[in-house]
Amino acid sequence: MFRLAIISFCWMNCSFIWYGVTQQATLIQGDMYINFIISSLMQFPAYLLAVIVSGFGRKKPLSLAFVSGAVTSLASYLIPSESLILRISLVMISKLIISCAFLFTMVLSAEMFPTELRHSMVAAANMFGMIAQSFAPQMPLLV
């Protein structure tokens, strides 16, 4: 049960932040279509980076991704709106990092549970992620 709680918390964090950052990319000043395209293109380097970093284990890269994703997300809010390029860069770096964390969470959740329970536990954790995902559109209202 403890493993399910931990991995559900990871799924909730990843889903909430990933969808929040994806929607935030269109709210930044500048062309919202260009920002969304750049945000979408951040997925490719994230998956390559995740494959490279996965050689260091599962828990340490996931923890590092959560911490660095939080730092870059908070920094993007603290940057004044006049520094448009820096703000967009931090949001895109945050998207890259949280995409890596999402991939690490998917792999870790599949490895944590025994074969008999794996599908049910991963589905339950994913359900909690979807619940958190439903709150992501309200994220700009929280800031």
From TrEMBL:
What domain of life does the UniProt record list for this protein's source? Eukaryota
The record's Gene Ontology cellular component field reads: membrane
Report which residue ranges the record marks as coiled coil: none
Asked if the Swiss-Prot or TrEMBL record annotates the protein with the keyword Glycoprotein, the reply is no
What are the transmembrane regions? 32-50, 62-79, 85-108
**Record carries keyword Transmembrane:** yes
Which membrane topology describes this protein? Multi-pass membrane protein
Among Gene3D superfamilies, the record links this protein to: MFS general substrate transporter like domains
Q: What is its main location?
A: membrane
Enumerate the subcellular locations listed in this protein's record, separating them with semicolons.
Membrane
**Record keywords:** Membrane, Transmembrane, Transmembrane helix
**UniProt cross-references to InterPro entries, sorted A to Z:** MFS_trans_sf (IPR036259)
| Database matches in PANTHER family | SOLUTE CARRIER FAMILY 22 MEMBER
> Protein name, please?
Solute carrier family 22 member 15
Question: What organism is recorded for this protein?
Answer: Cacopsylla melanoneura
